[in-house]
Design goal:
Length: 131
Amino acid sequence: KDWDAFFAGIPDDPVHPEGLAVAQELAREHDLVYLSGRPERTRAATEDWLDRNGAPAGTVLLRRDGDRRPARITKLGILRRLARDRPVAVLVDDDPAVCRAAREAGFTVMEATWSRPDPTLFEAQEKLGET
């Protein structure tokens, strides 16, 4: 559970062509928000990765450093906050627990089945609150 090494690998993360295509399609009619369970300390690497890989422009929202809550809780809280200012058209996420929580809260969800989290990462997100 060497999270510093894990996050140091951000520049090497592969692009999922399906996800990039969805982002490009949604960007035609919507303002994008990249909502990630990554901690704030990864902002520069995350924004650089998005730029280098041709992701459409958008706001990047990351969890606060030290926030150990499960992704389904942190992301749902951020979604609700966003929805106070404007409609949220759709959440695209690969975490089934996040998708389920968002659906139950009334949000439209597209599950990113092309990018299912590794079981170790899922455990870290849901049980350990480590990402």
